């Protein structure tokens, strides 16, 4: 695990906290709506991984690129996607980021740098290289961050993309959120090596393994990785250890998680730990509660807007297939 | 005007597109100067002009190549990715089918994916089962892409420019045996629009619908049959998908008979789709069932005589046409 580099600035810490809670409150709201039967869609819970996403997005510039997965709510909301459009898309409405044609697994919002959300495990990794290649070709100074899980590290494209990124010194940060499960398969049942980060050495790439439940570990690591990539020195593989505190997707059984694992992850829950850090850094309970209340109000409004929004026109199935050429 | 080969035509089209737009770049195995400008020399001389960032020689990593092309296209560039031989698309189908072809639609039109995937193939070179297949039907079956193949050097130049201009993915299929074909050079800036077929030879008795290398066979057979008083119209699709339905149907409505021909295997092929469409839309004009010819439904064999027997035979093309017009 990486050493703590330096104390995080107070304003940055507040930023990370706000982003973390945005992710968490969105997740809570989504699960509540699903439980109440108000919506019935595929949703991949991010409970337990909020901080990793928030810290990663807080380390990026607004116009940096992000590629994420079906479990990408954390990156999307923490990057600052307009939440009315986000909820609209998740509910399959015309007001969604993708006019209701992408859905929860394919959220795209180039205005906030959310370039691809893929539903195919590991497929975003080679695409991130291309975004970074465009930045290298044009010299626009952007960094591309691609988020994926430990399961994705075993698909062939991971290997191809790692090698290529290092070969060209592309400005990419590969963020492996090691949540200990690839779908329903525990880490030890899909990978014998104790970590994913050590694979970087095989490509000549810089890597770091951090505690993704500790803001003082994960944010400095992300900040350093982004700076390294932006400097032109090449990509970095960051392995952030975290827990997927629910099943693979909402409603799926996760009784396959052993008791000891559940106890371990409850003890490592990043949210109480972050709250503790915030209080230690002299933020008050009231301040922190107000942030959450404001986020909740914003989410409630966005959800209502999405629920009331019109469905996409049926003729949308014929549109955006190919460019209309006259 | 000077004559150019198909190899030169493709090189010229890419060169002028790169000169006009900094966002156009090439990537693929062996494509740069150090490796000789590509195994078929299509990118020869371009590294010297545009540098190694814009002529990127890649590792042997088809998924990473197409993934990178997709990502660069999303960022506004116009990558031309080379997949050395068409069979290797099997390695990167996820990037092509699930990503390149679908990102415009799934994003509600926000992220078009303007990439050209150049690839080559062809039966008759002695490359055996994993280096020879025509797999255009795989892509024609997926919404969100253009599938293109030239049958002559001038079209190669014009189609390549249009492919690079297109704001969607284009699978650009070259045939190894066609690289040496020559045409009068159509000159700089020449474009052949995507989705427009060419009438390679006019005729009145039967429409022979084909594309790529088999256009040459079609023209040869059609020329021979003139002596027997059979007038064959040869339609060169040029764009396989979405194809020029208007030109095809107009030709069949005129001749009343149709034969589809391709090097790819016959079952579930492009010819089957076109034949079905003709039966539906030209039924009252048809004087005979629509016929289809394709490669043998087996892997492409190695031994020369086996490979030659595998390919659609000119004698069979002639026989099918004669049977269709009732002169068998």
Overall domain count of chain B: 2
Order of helices and strands of chain A: HHEHHEHEHEEEHEHEHHH
Distance between the termini of chain A: 58 Å
Q: By CATH's scheme, which homologous superfamily of chain A applies?
A: Thiamin diphosphate (ThDP)-binding fold, Pyr/PP domains
CATH class of the largest domain in chain B: Alpha Beta
Strand fraction of chain A equals 5-15%
- Give the strand line-up of the largest sheet of chain A: 2-1-3-4-8-7
Class of secondary structure makeup of chain B = alpha/beta
Radius of gyration of chain B, rounded? 20 Å
Shape of chain A: globular
Structural classification of chain A: alpha/beta
The tally of strands of chain B reads 14
Q: And the CATH topology of chain A?
A: Rossmann fold
Helicity of chain A, as a percent range: 40-55%
Largest sheet of chain A: 6 strands, parallel
Instruction: Tell me the name of the CATH class of chain A.
Output: Alpha Beta
Low-confidence stretches of chain A: none
Q: Count the DSSP helices of chain B.
A: 12
Major sheet size, sense and barrel closure of chain B: 7 strands, mixed
CATH T-level fold name of the largest domain in chain B: Rossmann fold
- The quaternary organization reads as heterodimer
Task: Write up this protein.
The complex is a heterodimer of chains A (326) and B (328). Chain A is of the alpha/beta class and 326 residues long. Chain A has one domain: Thiamin diphosphate (ThDP)-binding fold, Pyr/PP domains (Rossmann fold), CATH 3.40.50.970. Helices cover 44% and strands 12% of the residues of chain A. Chain A contains 11 helices and 8 strands. Chain A has helices at residues 10-35, 50-58, 73-79, 83-90, 124-138, 156-168, 187-190, 215-230, 259-267, 270-280, 285-308; strands spanning 65-69, 114-118, 144-149, 172-178, 181-182, 185-186, 206-211, 236-241. In chain A, the strands form 2 sheets. In chain A, strands 2-1-3-4-8-7 form a 6-stranded parallel sheet, with helices on both faces. Chain A starts with 9 loop residues before the first helix and ends in an 18-residue tail after the last helix. With 328 residues, chain B is an alpha/beta fold. Chain B folds into 2 domains: 3-184, Thiamin diphosphate (ThDP)-binding fold, Pyr/PP domains (Rossmann fold, 3-Layer(aba) Sandwich), CATH 3.40.50; 198-325, 3-Layer(aba) Sandwich (Rossmann fold), CATH 3.40.50.920. Helix content of chain B is 36%, strand content 21%. Chain B is built from 12 helices and 14 strands. Chain B has helices spanning 6-20, 46-50, 62-74, 93-100, 103-106, 136-140, 153-165, 214-226, 245-255, 270-281, 304-310, 314-325, and strands spanning 3-5, 24-29, 55-58, 78-85, 116-121, 146-148, 170-175, 182-184, 198-201, 206-210, 232-236, 239-241, 258-265, 291-295. Chain B has a 7-stranded mixed sheet, sandwiched between helices. A 5-stranded mixed sheet of chain B has the order 9-11-10-13-14, sandwiched between helices. In chain B, strand 2 (24-29), helix 2 (46-50) and strand 3 form a beta-alpha-beta unit. Chain B is globular, with a radius of gyration of 20 Å. Classes of the chains: A alpha/beta (326), B alpha/beta (328). At the A-B interface, strand 2, helix 5 and helix 6 of A face helix 3, helix 4 and helix 5 of B.
């Amino acid at each position: 695990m990486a050493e703590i580099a330096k104390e995080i600035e107070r304003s940055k810490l507040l930023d990370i906290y706000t982003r973390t809670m945005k992710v968490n409150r969105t997740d809570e709201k989504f699960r509540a709506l699903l439980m109440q039967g108000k919506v019935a869609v595929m949703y991949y819970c991010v409970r337990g991984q909020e901080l990793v996403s928030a810290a990663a997005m807080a380390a990026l510039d607004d116009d940096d690129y992000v590629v994420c997965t079906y479990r990408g709510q954390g990156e999307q909301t923490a990057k600052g996607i307009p939440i009315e459009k986000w909820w609209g898309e998740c509910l399959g409405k015309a007001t969604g980021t993708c006019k209701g044609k992408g859905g929860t697994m394919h959220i795209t919002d180039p205005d906030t740098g959310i370039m691809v959300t893929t539903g195919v495990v590991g497929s975003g990794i080679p695409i991130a290289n291309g975004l970074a290649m465009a930045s290298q070709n044009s010299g626009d100074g952007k960094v591309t961050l691609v988020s994926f899980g430990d399961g994705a590290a075993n698909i062939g494209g991971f290997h191809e993309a790692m090698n290529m990124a290092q070969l060209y010194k592309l400005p990419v940060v590969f963020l492996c959120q090691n949540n200990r499960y690839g779908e329903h398969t525990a880490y030890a049942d899909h990978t014998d090596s104790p970590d994913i980060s050590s694979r970087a050495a095989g490509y000549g790439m810089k890597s770091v393994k951090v505690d993704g439940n500790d803001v003082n570990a994960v944010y400095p690591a992300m900040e350093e990785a982004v700076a390294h990539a932006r400097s032109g020195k090449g990509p970095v593989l960051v392995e952030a250890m975290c827990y997927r505190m629910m099943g693979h997707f909402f409603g799926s059984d996760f009784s396959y998680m052993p008791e000891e694992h559940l106890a371990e992850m409850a003890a490592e829950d990043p949210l109480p730990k972050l709250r503790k850090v915030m209080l230690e850094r002299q933020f008050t309970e009231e301040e922190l509660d107000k942030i959450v209340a404001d986020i909740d109000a914003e989410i409630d409004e966005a959800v209502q807007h999405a629920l009331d929004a019109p469905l996409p026109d049926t003729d949308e199935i014929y549109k955006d297939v190919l460019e209309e050429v006259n | 005007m000077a004559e150019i080969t198909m190899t030169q035509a493709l090189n010229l089209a890419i060169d002028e597109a790169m000169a006009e737009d900094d966002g156009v770049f090439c990537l693929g195995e062996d494509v740069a100067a150090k490796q000789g400008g590509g195994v078929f020399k299509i990118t020869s001389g371009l590294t010297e002009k545009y540098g190694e960032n814009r002529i990127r020689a890649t590792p042997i990593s088809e998924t990473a190549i197409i993934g990178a092309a997709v990502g660069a296209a999303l960022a506004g560039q116009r990558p031309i990715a080379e997949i050395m031989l068409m069979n290797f698309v099997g390695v990167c189908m996820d990037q092509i089918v699930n990503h390149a072809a679908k990102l415009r639609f799934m994003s509600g039109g926000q992220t078009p994916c303007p990439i050209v995937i150049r690839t080559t193939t062809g039966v008759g070179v002695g490359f055996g089962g994993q280096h020879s297949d025509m797999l255009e039907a795989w892509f024609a079956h997926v919404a969100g892409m253009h599938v293109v193949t030239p049958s002559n050097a001038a079209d190669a130049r014009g189609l390549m420019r249009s492919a690079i201009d297109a704001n969607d993915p284009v699978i650009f299929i070259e045939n190894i045996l066609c690289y040496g074909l020559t045409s009068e050079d159509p000159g700089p800036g020449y474009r052949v629009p995507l989705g427009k077929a060419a009438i390679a030879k006019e005729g009145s008795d039967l429409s022979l619908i084909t594309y790529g290398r088999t256009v040459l066979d079609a023209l040869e057979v059609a020329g021979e049959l003139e002596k027997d008083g059979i007038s064959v119209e040869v339609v060169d699709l040029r764009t396989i998908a979405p194809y020029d339905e208007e030109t095809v149907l107009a030709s069949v409505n005129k001749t009343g008979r149709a034969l589809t021909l391709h090097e790819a295997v016959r079952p579930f092929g492009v010819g089957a789709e076109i034949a079905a469409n003709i039966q539906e839309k030209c039924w009252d004009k048809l004087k005979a069932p629509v016929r289809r010819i394709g490669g043998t439904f087996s892997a492409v064999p190695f031994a020369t005589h086996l490979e030659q027997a595998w390919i659609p035979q000119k004698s069979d093309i002639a026989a099918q046409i004669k049977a269709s017009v009732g002169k068998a």
